[in-house]
What does this fold into?
Amino acid sequence: MTAHPLHLPSGTVDLDAIPTDATPGFSGKKSDGKAQLFALGPELADLQERLFAEGRATGSHRRVLLVLQGMDTSGKGGTLKHTVGLVDPQGVRISSFKAPTKEELAHDFLWRIRKALPQAGYVGVFDRSHYEDVLIARVNELAAPEEIERRYDAINEFERELVEDGTVVLKCMLHISKDTQRERLLARLDNPEKYWKYEPGDLDSRARWDDYRAAYAVALERTHTEHAPWHVVPSDRKWFRNLAVGQLLLAALRGMDLGWPPADFDVDAERARLLAEDASA
Amino acid sequence: MTAHPLHLPSGTVDLDAIPTDATPGFSGKKSDGKAQLFALGPELADLQERLFAEGRATGSHRRVLLVLQGMDTSGKGGTLKHTVGLVDPQGVRISSFKAPTKEELAHDFLWRIRKALPQAGYVGVFDRSHYEDVLIARVNELAAPEEIERRYDAINEFERELVEDGTVVLKCMLHISKDTQRERLLARLDNPEKYWKYEPGDLDSRARWDDYRAAYAVALERTHTEHAPWHVVPSDRKWFRNLAVGQLLLAALRGMDLGWPPADFDVDAERARLLAEDASA
It folds into this structure.
């Protein structure tokens, strides 16, 4: 995956230098992009089924964890629907993280995250994640600066643990412009079928746009590791965002070199049993 | 839903009298059936999104619980993939029930079931369910007869509670013939990509086919209630099974009369705030 054009370069992160409306690695138009995503479906579904089969039939712990982060309206839900929706829902576990409950706050920030990890063989998706604990937590001062500092390291250790246990951690930041957010928020206000997606509190986060940008930059920089790198996905164009995440997910699955689990029973003996049983019936 | 041709009639249940290869209510062929299922997709997805929106934006507890039961190879997984796969995976929660763990056995049989119930606004799917506790439990004498007796009533009470709390409980028994099961088991043994789906223990259950049939008949009869009726879905033809469950799910959602939640904020004021903020920026 390191060759992917959306792989974040190492070093200081300057989000303003990364265009939100570009289509890196893709030269076609919207209709081509949509067709190309759709065309990924069969291979994505096949590889996901192999992963699921492996988890069921072997002792392997392998699994995929797709982490989606981004500002409100960046399209975490839409990405999920259009990319993860291409595979069998049985092998997918989606977790949406909202403001922590009182019980969750009484534990370390990773407690609720660990509870939501996908089982072996699954594609887990985090719609928001442990990164909120260094993003909103930093912007709104929900934790002391030393605690936020500690968390970057804790996240890296946690993700290293996951990777060592056989998890492919695919982290995507859906990158939109402030103008795109305004358009999308207005669209929610203009369409009664979208009112439910709007929350007045979204404007409070929007008012802190630059602070969030800064918090993201630090978070990406501190947690962009060899074992769990970040991808910044230009997301002003929904179709490109979906295609890019679909391609990243496909690359992650391809990289796992997934076969079909061999039989852990004697195939011929089972066949004979089945046929004999029916002959005697 | 009571008018649906797959709605189990009241009274004594005789599964042998219900054909496994029929296509009740449908006169087309396989290709028509597949096209018709596909055509249900947009309305299913629309209604599921309304339900999800309601769960998110209002205090409503409404949700759907689809219970899939059937012998091995009856196609619980395939049904899920082809019908539930038509809606946004974000609004779906699938729970597969295997043999209970030691911890689960230390509790009442409904303990693990309650923990897996979908949240408000979700379509929950049970791939096997609390019914195993009166099916395999009865056939293999995993519980005393009095306890099995108690469970039928406990299930009815539990499901009534769910319905009163706003859950639509849609129960489907995927009904196949013993011959179809043999063909499908052989197909798993003939194709290395399907070995993982085969377990030698499946033949032990198959050897008790008649006992399972009897256990199903009692279970269906005892738990076929006004509030949570059973549907017996002829499942020898996979395409018909998928179409039938898709239609039942659609009927269930239609019956909920789902709208879009109204705004719980002042739309014009929010629009003004958003525009003013940008004007001053």
Notes: Chain B has a mean pLDDT of 95. The interface with chain A takes residues 53-54, 56-57, 77, 80-81, 84-85, 88-90, 92, 94, 96, 127, 182, 185-186, 189, 192-193, 195-200, 203, 206-207, 260-263, 265, 267, 270-271, 273-274, 277-278 of chain B (CB under 8 Å). The two ends of chain B are 55 Å apart (CA to CA).
